[in-house]
Amino acid sequence: MNPADRAAFTRRQFLTTGLTLASASAAVPWFLQRSAFGLPHAAAGMRAIPGVDQDRVLVVVQLGGGNDGLNMVIPYGDPTYYKARPTIGVAQERVLKLGDDANGVGLHPQMRPMKELYDEGVLSLVQGVGYPNPNRSHFKSMDIWHTADLSGTGSGWLGRYFDAECSGEAAKPGDAAAKDPASGHNPQIGVAVGREAPLAMQGSRIAPLSFETPDLFRWIGSDVHKTLADPYKQITRQGVAENIDPHSNAGFLMRTALDAQVSSDLIRKAVSQPPLVAYPNSDLARQLAMVGSMIRAGLSTRVYYVTMGGFDTHAGQGGENGRHANLLQQFAAAVGAFYKDLKAQRNHERVLTMTFSEFGRRVYQNASGGTDHGTAAPMFLVGPMVSPGVLTRHPSLNDLDDGDLKFNTDFRSVYAGVLESWLKADSKKILEEAFKPAPVMKRA
Amino acid sequence: MSSNAGGSASSVGVAGEPPSRSAGGGKPAVKSKVSASASAINASKFGYDQARHLLWRAGFGGTPEQIQTLASWGPQKAVDYLIEYEKVPFVDSDSTRFDGSIMRPLTPDERAALQRARRSNDTEAVARYEAERQKRQMSDRKQVRDVQHWWMKRMIETPRPLEEKLTLLWHGHFATSYRTIEDSYHMYRQNEFFRKNASGSFGDLLFGIIRDPAMIAYLDNNDSSKNRPNENLARELMELFSLGVGNYTEKDIKEGARALTGYTFEDDEFVFQKNNHDDGGKAILGRRGNLDGDGFVSAILEQRACASFVARKLYRFFAADYPTGRPEIDAAAEGMIRGLASTLLRNKYQLRPALRELFLSEHFYDPALAAEQIKSPVQLVVGAVRSLGAPPRDLSVLLDAMNLMGQNLLFPPSVKGWDGGRAWINTATLFVRQNILAYLLTGKTPTGYDAMAGSEKYDPMKLLTPLDAADPTARRDPAKVADFLTRFALGRPSPESREPLLAFLASHSNTLTPDVLTGLLLLITTMPEYQLC
């Protein structure tokens, strides 16, 4: 079996697994139910070839801590940049220049793999992304990006996308759908690699699947004695018990326990396949390698979410080399390897990768050789489907708002562009407000 | 508390009697009205289930015998015993071993020599200093592991559970991570600072935290200068430590940052650098004058919002994850939090009166709150060792598992601390939670068994002592055994929990050997309700 052949790990193979599992339990987690019980009318989706909507995947890469966008996409053509950053500025001759169309901006020298994607025409660079009245608290600003709501409250934007894709009626407290997610009609699942499921993926009734390492994704107690297996199955696959309030923590735990059991088998099988290309040794690379394996295995997942932290560089962030440079190097190398993996799988055309951070940093460096919390920053979109190149102008370094860049692109316009053009969803409904979709995708 | 502290079974709610399966006679708790009363619970309503609840919330759970002892004391004595913990003798001899000199700064002579070497391009000497620095960093990373072990051991062994529980609360509240500050001794000192002030005055915690080297380094106040104040500490002091968003302005942050200039540390001690302090006029939260850090903190403590913020924090940590999204609980919780805030103000932010009010209130024991708190990884692991009497085995394994469950002690994910509540639980952490219990009970690891699994065998039979005392024949009745264990381990077991346990017992001819009892506990600890306390 040629491991590069996507057909070797077809969706059908996983559906078969799903059916076996499904018959083992009366209550089936919602993400399995659609594929298993929805089989007759989902047949069209199953035969889908790469490129059709059902096969489209979004991978979100979160850079936590507030990435210094100005040292990532560097306005080397502007003398103010060097004036504002006497010790951490990156020398003009070292910047990876993006050509004449880029208006004097280039990439940090540690980001060569991203430059290669740019040269290949599969990288879209959106500059000056932010939102009105920027909040400089990590948590608040991260919540704003996750909820796509300026108050930073409510459900996540991707969670609302999952909710909206559900064909079933919205669950009301106390009804069967709220009590048991298996009774609703649901879309493919979102998968977050990491300990905590991100707020962005929390819908009002759909939560993502999340895990950090596949080895711990099973109960080892069943190895202790064979008589434990059946009672264990009974305990963990019962769903929400009869007299338990589904909105209570007990109800929540029973639902999660059931989801965990069924997803355990699916995911462990998928991730056990080694990647087709070598990934660098970093946490982000490890996460993206797992995502690559899951995509290759044909899981019916629409959105994957990975995170990288450490970007809160208040002190000693360095310039061409040093702390921030190392972070950029890890980031670029991991994303570069991931794209190579997708190409080797021949899945690159169905996967869009998008990166963001909760805010950029101030234009002027501080007394500690670092930068404080700022505002607008760039986003990257990767894949053959993106509208390649530098999409927006770099915000002016001379027309600042209290020392900070003025944003020129609302991040919700970027979300709208991805939702409308890639996920084929109604962005107004999901973002709960109309935003002009940013032209981040190639015209179909 | 020692397990032989008067384990009389004659207390209210004998452990052997049938458990109340769930509140309101089998109906969901949501249907019944939640008590909003802050008045003290009547002694006649304080039995086994209430004592169990108190032990889990104000501590890390207890053995069946400990639960019975507390129940027999009644609510006043039980709460006093937990709150006035300094009366319980406890000598911790382990803490003196931490070395404060590992990460000491260079002496003036060393610094001068290093500078000379740099100037003269003496790469060999510079490399020597660099190698020395790396060596010390390595020893320090080892020492921070030792500090984690020390704290874990202390939580497991202490006869003063509330002292450690509060230390954990303040660690998560004034969250500081070793990852950023890279000084294990400062982390240790901060931990002792929290413990020393754990149940004293919240004001003392605030006045102390702006002088704490670990916090000063974590929030960059040592990089703040009179001419370029760093706003990090000033912002978090109000946003996360005392007032909450909406109760201050951006201007308060700017002025607050000026007030905190000059607050730094040298080696291991706080230093106020007068020359680097901006002593000009300021206005913070309505208070005017040449305010310094203490003036800033005093301005904060004058705000009723501060008392409300602390009350809410205490309520969320000990009572319920407010807002719960369940109106019948939230309405009662709001009244309770208002009362706690008033108690804090009346007592100049002394914490004990508020804690006593909470732990004695009828509201705290309402069935809607019982067994509805999701255990943090620390609660889960420390609680399992303490309540089940399991051998702690390898503390490194326990700490690694806690990390995987999302709680790495001394390494909180951000200055916000741990979100807690449902954020602890997802499909992945749930397996780690089940697996670490399997490890504690049997020594099982993902790849085999712990090296010491044979010699450190868990003896579960002791758990049954109160059952035997109440009903010598109960052990022969599988249903009685299952009910006793689920009531003890789950608090409010669902009726469905009994059947798989009976099936397992039946597959072993209903013979209650230690291995079969361990098997029962393995199953009980995988129950979704085991994650609750």
Offer a few descriptive terms.
heterodimer, A: 444 residues, alpha/beta, nine-stranded mixed sheet, three-stranded antiparallel sheet, globular, disordered N terminus, B: 533 residues, mainly alpha, two-stranded antiparallel sheet, 23 helices, 6 strands
Short description:
Chain A has 444 residues and is an alpha/beta fold. Chain A has helices spanning 11-23, 30-37, 39-46, 79-84, 112-119, 138-147, 157-165, 176-179, 229-236, 249-271, 283-296, 323-345, 411-422, 427-431; strands at 57-63, 73-74, 96-97, 106-107, 123-130, 190-193, 209-211, 303-308, 351-357, 377-382, 389-390, 409-410. In chain A, 34% of the residues lie in helices and 11% in strands.
Query: How does the helix and strand content of chain B classify structurally?
Result: mainly alpha
How much strand content do the residues of chain A show? 5-15%
Whole-number mean pLDDT of chain A: 81
Query: How many helical stretches of chain A?
Result: 14
Question: Segments of chain B where pLDDT lies below 50 for 5+ residues?
Answer: 1-31
Oligomer: heterodimer
Order of helices and strands of chain A: HHHEEHEEHEHHHEEHHHEHEEEEHH
Low-confidence stretches of chain A: 1-52, 167-188
* Number of strand segments of chain A: 12
Helix content of chain B: 40-55%
How many E-type strands of chain B?
6
Shape summary of chain A: globular
Q: Estimate the helix proportion of chain A, in percent.
A: 25-40%
Q: Strand percentage of chain B, roughly? A: under 5%
Strand arrangement, major sheet of chain B: 1-2
The pair of chains with the biggest contact is: A-B, 58 and 73 residues
**Rough outline of chain B:** globular
Distance between the termini of chain B: 19 Å
Write down the Rg of chain B: 26 Å
Rg from Cα of chain A: 23 Å
The run of helices and strands of chain B is HHHHHHHHHHHHEEEEHHHHHHHEEHHHH
